[in-house]
Amino acid sequence: MVLGIDLGTSNTVSASLSRDGSPVLIPDANNKDVQITPSIALIEGRKAYAGNFAENLYESLPDKQIISYFKRSFGTQEPVYFDDYKNPWFSETVASLILRKVKYDAELYLPDGFRQAVITVPAHYNDVQRKSVIEAARLADLELTAIIEEPVAAALFYGSYNKKIDEEIILIYDFGGGTFDLTLITKSGNQLNVIAKDGVNKLGGKEFDDIVHNTIKEGYEKSFGSYFPTDKLTTNRIAKIAESIKIELNDAETPRNVSKWIMVGRDAFEATFHYENYASKANQLIIKTEQAVNRCLRSLGMQFTDINKIVLIGGTSSSKLVYNFWKGKVSPKQELVYHQPLSSVAKGAALYAASFSDGNSAEIVPIDLKSVSTYNIGLVFANDSKKQIDLLIHRNTPLPVSSKKVYKINPQQNDFVHIELCQFWDPQEDIHKLGTIKAGPFGLMSEFYLEVAVENRLNGTIGIKLKNADNGRDIKFEFIRKASDHKYDYQQQKAMVDSVYLNNYI
Amino acid sequence: MRELQYIAERFDDLIRELPVSSYAGFLEETKRKIKVLADKDEFYIDVFNCTNASSESKKTVKLLESAAQNTGYRISLKDENNFSTRIFETVFPSVGFVLLDEEMLQNDALKQHFKKTDSTYKVMFIVNLLSNNDGIRDFSRQFSIRTKTFTLSPADLEGKSIGEIIGASIEAASVDKIKKIAYLNSIKPVFSFLDDILSSENKAANTRKLLNTQNTNITRKEEQSLNNNEVTSNLRQLIQKSSQELEKSYKIKYEDLNKPNTGQFSILTQERCNMLTDFERKSLAEKSEKYETTIAPGFINSFVTAISNSIQKELGKDEAFIKSSFEDMISQINIQLKNKGIQPLKVDTIYPPFPEKERTINSFCYINKNYTGELIKKGATEYFVALRDYTGLIMVVGGLLAPLSIVASASDSGVFKNIATWVKATTAGISLLMIIYGIFDLRRRIPKKRVEEFERELNKAKEILTQESKRMFNESSRDWTSNISNWIRDASQNINLQIDRNIKDLLSQKASQMNQEKVQQQKQQQSVDLLLRNIQSAERVKEQLNTRYRDMVNEAEKDLKL
User: Fold this and answer.
1) pLDDT band at B183 (very low <50, low <70, confident <90, very high)
2) Per-residue pLDDT tens for B396-436?
3) Within an 8 Å CB–CB cutoff, is residue A46 touching chain B?
4) Does A233 touch chain B (CB under 8 A)?
5) What pLDDT was estimated at residue B227?
6) What is B455-477 written as a DSSP string?
7) In this structure, are residues B29 and A266 in contact, taking their beta carbons and an 8 Å threshold?
8) Helices (H) and strands (E) in chain A, counts
9) DSSP symbols for B283-303
10) Closest CA to B30 of A68, A244, A267, A170
11) Which of A59, A268, A271 sits opposite B193 (nearest CB)?
12) In this complex, which of B29, B207, B211 lies closest to A266 when CB atoms are compared?
């Protein structure tokens, strides 16, 4: 058996394959009607609650903070929570609680257990963020077979039941709870080719929630003339209310205002959410995704009309607002596909996991996945006063790909060599500094040529190798990630996760 | 409105059912607010005009305000900035006046508000301030079908009280009902609050119930993990092994120090003995030719002091090293204890008094067997003593010379006389030669013998010192290692005792904690069951309130003629 996990910003969904090869969702161990695990956790002393448990309990634990949207902190090396004993919890550690919960559900649901496990990551994730997901799986004692990008997983699922898409250009539009990704793919038999990727960091359902949240806050301050309370209980409650109002506004059959009585502390007031106001702000967010789509197409010299199908996936894509936006954009020749937007990623991941199995089932076909690099990858030599980026790997280059750069090193001038590794779409805009390669000291060596080889692997992660170009010998180096006041220590984090009783499982 | 008092009173029942809810404060406050509403009796009316309303509109507002004065009617002004804000505790009027001027006609936000299907307004008076009647029809159409609209002209308001204005369009009985409806509308949100609160409490209680069942399993698991035999046995082994290694290392250390030729103590002995170059001499009455030789007390003192210092230095090192070794061992033990949640060891009660170095040194560092020797005095006595070495020869020579002197004293006659003369000459010659040889030999031999004798005595003295030094080192080392072994054994025993005590304390503490947890879980189970029952009761109270409320609304709406 296999397990595919869509570790989402708002919700986590897991799927496996039935005996006939069809993907099926794995329900909650305590409630078979619940197939979605909210990606939230709550820590209380030596007990931790993940998913629905945390959601149901936050009212009873008013002084506890719901840890949510931790997926946005992947790769930051900054703690997302401090427990009662002042221990820092990193995004990886909190994610491991959700993964453990999902794993527990799967172990109960799948009588024979599972052998292959695949977790999905947003397509725009950089190397550090991808490694954070792998780390979270390690902390959860989940042996990963692979990671796969969310849009690619959705494409696999879409392709599995739609055989007539060969040679078509498909845009997978993944607008989730916290991230927006887009991927252009083509399919040819069992081969799935990713031809381009793009996305917008920190754009998802949370930004839609924030529109509602701000209206609630403004309404409160106007009604009572005092600042909106910031205690944990109110914050948790209002976050839930904002989300439910957002869904109501997003999914309204016909545009209408929504009025809702909201309890804040000991007071209550009626907040009115004007559809037009909300829709205008929400559309600005959707336009950002359109800009990313156009940017991606431009980078390939294509136009929107060249796309044959747009597949909408992700929680935010499931809203009528997003659907109607794109409905208004597509031409009659283009097809807007709206099929299982919440579960297609997990199901695709399960299909991908199955492709690693020994092929006992005739229904499971091996998948030949051809992907491309998400970002440009470059190096910045610290001694270079201009801080110029040496581009090694261009974005949208077929994976795996590797490239080298040679630097002339004079050990007499500097004991150590520092080279910064970075990923970016546009060097003028958002540069992700992944960390610094530190090599040396080189002692009594005379001037030599240092070769830095960078490999972008099929799963999107990056490998680095340093060698002396003169004699071909490997050079040891240290990779220093972003400095943080709280050092991530695997042993400590693992001990913390192991010591808590998660959802009171034994 | 006094009828609301019933709702407020029944709210008390509901609060009693949910005493520890995270909404307790909110429910209490809601009850207070319902009471505040119940105590009110005024007829509330909303008057809508825009912030940039025409002067006609503003004039009309003033007219309505003066019409409401001292009449039991309360007017609240609403514009595009405050129309959507409603706070629970205020009355939501069921009658409104819209001052329709050009500005109002253009105001989309207010128009949207009037379209609301769930509007609480039963009657809306549209005061037409427009220069023509074209816009009024379309404007009045946008109101919900649940809202009855009446169009008034400014003239209809002139010189009338609010009661008269309303009474002109609505029957007096219906006015009362409308007022009642306004109050009933004001507490309507309470039912939505109760739905949310009870649903949330219900979810939390059911989750708690589920978790509580699993809590019992966790306690059982922790109980099983209480068995610390493995830890005790591991720690005992660690302590035994470390102690034995420590003891062994000290035996080896002192064996090494005492090794002949290469041992540090042996080298020191050698060095100190070599420093002995002379003796103290004392004349003896019975042997006037000799001195009695002894080692100078100053030298002996410095010799013993040097040995004592050397031993003390080594013993001093031991205390620091043994204690630091024990501290390492204790910190290792403490890590294991901490991992198992056992109280770490306290050092202050572990170490017995460390053996006293001075006692060992004082016990063994002294000269047991002192050196005493003899040396021949320098001068004539040396010769006499030396002559003793020639006694045999002298006897032989004397014995030989005696017959010769007989021969020499023989008669003067004949052959004998010649022989006597020859013997005399020969004897004289031999005697002279012997005296010369003797003197020469004594002059050569006596200084040599003197040196040899001195060296012999010196070596003898050194040998005694060496033996004494060895004794001091050996006995001190033996005593010290035995003391250390005893100390290590005592300290190890103390550690074992403290571990046993700490484990015992933990076990009893855990056992009591487990018992408490079990009791607590039972209580929690009962508490959750009670909470669920209370929620059910609260649901029932809510339903009763809801029914009563619907009845009140139906009653108010019944025969309402608009």
Assistant:
1) very high
2) 877 877 777 777 776 666 667 777 778 778 878 888 888 88
3) no
4) yes
5) 66
6) HHHHHHHHHHHHHHHHHHHHHHH
7) yes
8) 10, 27
9) E-SS-TTEEEEE--HHHHHHH
10) A267
11) A268
12) B29
B199 touches chain A (CB under 8 A): no
Q: Tens digit of pLDDT for each residue in A265-318?
A: 899 999 989 888 899 999 999 999 999 999 999 988 899 999 999 999 988 988
Residue count of chain B, please give it. 562
- Predicted TM-score (pTM) above 0.90: no
When pLDDT is averaged across residues B333-337 and rounded to a whole number, the result is 84
The CA–CA distances, whole Å, from B19 to B212, B346, B526, B534, B544 equal 20, 47, 15, 9, 19
CA separation for the pair B113, B119 (Å, rounded)? 8
Chain-wide mean pLDDT for chain A? 87
Contact B193 A233 (CB under 8 A): no
Q: Give the whole-angstrom CA distance, residue B463 versus residue B287.
A: 25
The H or E element spanning position B361 is helix B357-364
Cα distance between residue B189 and residue A8, in whole Å: 35
Tokens encoding B522: 């039972």
Q: Does B109 contact A274 at a Cβ distance shorter than 8 Å? A: yes
Query: With bands split at pLDDT 50, 70 and 90, how would you rate the model's confidence at A483?
Result: low
Mark yes or no for CB contact A57/B193 under 8 Å. Answer: no
Mean pLDDT calculated for residue range A468-480: 87
Contacts of A257 (CB under 8 A, 6+ apart): A272, A273, A274, A275, B112, B116
Contact (CB<8Å) A57/B109:
no
Query: What is the C-alpha to C-alpha distance for residues A7 and A149, in angstroms, rounded to an integer?
Result: 11
Q: CA-based Rg of chain A, rounded to a whole angstrom?
A: 24
ipTM comes to 0.72
Res B440 pLDDT > 90: no
